[in-house]
Each structure stands twice: as structure tokens, then as C-alpha cells.
Specification:
Largest sheet: 5 strands, antiparallel
Number of helices: 1
Strand content: 35-45%
CATH architecture of one domain: Sandwich
Shape: globular
Radius of gyration: 14 Å
CATH class of one domain: Mainly Beta
Length: 115
């Protein structure tokens, strides 16, 4: 992850080369600054998530899948952005073999207060 800088470029290929991690992880942290954490995820199958303390955003780099959340099933594909508020149960299903996404946790525990 390197030294924290005020600005930088995080290269997909460099982070992807660290997957799988030492214990076989298919997601690795790429950047941290205060409450912000960004990871690259290359899951091999459905990812059952536990509700997180922070809001999260997924940037779909490539592939497709279905986000199960809040009683809904929403298909997504490359280039889409997914948002899941803090505390929401969710999972990602039916992912394609080439699936890759950036996952971003941000904000205070409990999530941001809606305007």
C-alpha cells in the first residue's frame, strides 16, 4: 500500500498482482486514509457480506453480477457503481468469471446522515 500521500495513482494491474493474497484472499487493500479504505476484489463466487459499520461503494471494473440488497435483486455490469448504506445486509451473486470491482468503505460508523 505504500506511504500515504496527498495524491497518487493506484494502478489496477499492480494491486491485482497481489491477488490471491498470502492466505488465498481474493480481495486486498489498496489505499487507506483516515476512515476511507479502498480494496480490489476479484471474487471467484457469490460473496455473502455481513452488514458493515460504514457506507460502501463498489465500482465495477469488469464483468457482471447481481446485487442482493434491501429485499431487491439488481443486475449490474462493467462501469456500474453500487451503493450499500451502513448496516444493510447484502451479497453479490451470479458473477461472471472475469469479475473485478473496487470496494470503498468511507465515513463514520453508522454511515452518513441522509440530507
Amino acid at each position: 500500500m505504500g506511504t500515504p500521500h496527498r495524491s497518487q495513482v493506484i494502478r489496477l494491474a499492480e494491486v491485482q498482482a497481489r491477488i490471491p493474497g498470502p492466505a488465498g484472499e481474493h480481495a486486498v487493500a489498496a489505499f487507506r486514509r483516515g476512515p476511507l479504505e479502498i480494496a480490489l476484489s476479484l471474487p471467484l463466487h457469490t460473496t455473502q457480506q455481513t452488514p458493515h459499520a460504514q457506507d460502501e461503494i463498489y465500482f465495477v471494473v469488469r464483468g457482471r453480477g447481481v446485487l442482493i440488497h434491501d429485499g431487491r435483486r439488481d443486475p449490474f455490469q462493467s462501469g456500474d457503481l453500487l451503493f450499500v448504506a451502513a448496516g444493510i445486509e447484502h451479497q453479490i451473486e451470479d458473477i461472471s468469471e472475469d469479475f473485478a470491482m473496487w470496494r470503498v468503505f468511507y465515513g463514520p460508523p453508522g454511515g452518513e446522515v441522509p440530507a
